[in-house]
Amino acid sequence: MARRTQLTIIGMAVLAASALQVSAAQASDWRYCIAPSPAQHTIYMSLPFPADDAMETIESEFGQALDHALLAHDSVQCPRGDADAIAGMKQHAIEYNEASGNKVVQLNWRP
User: Fold this and answer.
1) pLDDT tens sequence across 100-109
2) Does residue 57 belong to any structural domain of this protein?
3) Which of 31, 51, 35, 47 is nearest to 109 (CA)?
């Protein structure tokens, strides 16, 4: 019986640790990057991604990826938030740009 109690306690501890890891992952910063190209009436967007790097680093890397692909663009922005906020911000940006007559190009890019 004591062995069974020990296993139950260990199992509960493992479940609690797993729940904490999931909460920590969900609470981390998320970003997506966006760069307009007004002359082409186009906006480039990345997929959402979890981010630990500095904003300047991520924005620079996205800009370099666009440059490497020979895609003309203005300044890069990579807003930060939790996963839900980023999904909402990205969707709003897509809707706003499409309503403004801009072509939205979603790129499979992550830092």
Assistant:
1) 999 999 999 9
2) yes
3) 47
Taking the CA of residue 41 as centre, how many other CA atoms within 13 Å lie in the half-sphere pointing to its CB?
6
Q: Is 45 part of a structural domain of the chain?
A: yes
Domain that holds residue 87: 30-107
Encoding tokens for residue 56?
């300047």
What predicted TM-score, i.e. pTM, was given to this entire model? 0.73
Assess if residue 14 is contained within a domain: no
Helix extents (H) in 28-54: none
User: Which residues of the chain, if any, have pLDDT below 50?
Assistant: 2-26
Contact yes or no for 89/79 (Cβ under 8 A): yes
In a domain, 9, yes or no: no
Closest by CA position to 66, among listed 50, 52, 88, 46: 46
Split into its structural domains, the chain has a count of 1
Instruction: Give Cα 45 distance to the centre of its chain.
Output: 11
**pLDDT digit string, tens, across residues 48-60:** 999 999 999 999 9
- Going by the DSSP 8-state scheme, the letter that residue 77 receives in this structure is B
